[in-house]
Design goal:
Blueprint lengths: L1 E6 L6 H12 L10 E11 L2 E12 L2 E9 L2 H24 L1
Parallel strand pairs: 1-2
Antiparallel strand pairs: 2-3, 3-4
Helix pairs in contact: 1-2
Amino acid sequence: MVIKTEAVQFKADQKLLDFIERKFSKLNVFFDKITSVEVYLKLENSGQIKEKIVEALVNVPGDSIFVKDSSKSFEESIEKVGSSLKRQLVKYKEKKRA
């Protein structure tokens, strides 16, 4: 599984990139046929607070799963996206079995 991370209009530090790598590499436990994961990190100015947006596109054979979330920190957004992807991958795996 290939994990590609892209920070849009800013430079992500190595600590954040390592965190993403750890979180998304665990997705193989839920569905072992994942070909690639594309993670996009974005900043959005909404008044005084900058929203951190995380989008993830998981490519599986014949399909892809997309999740987007935003919060005050990238770590929190990554956690939410990761848990949402886990649920969707389990659901996708059950659907393929049936």
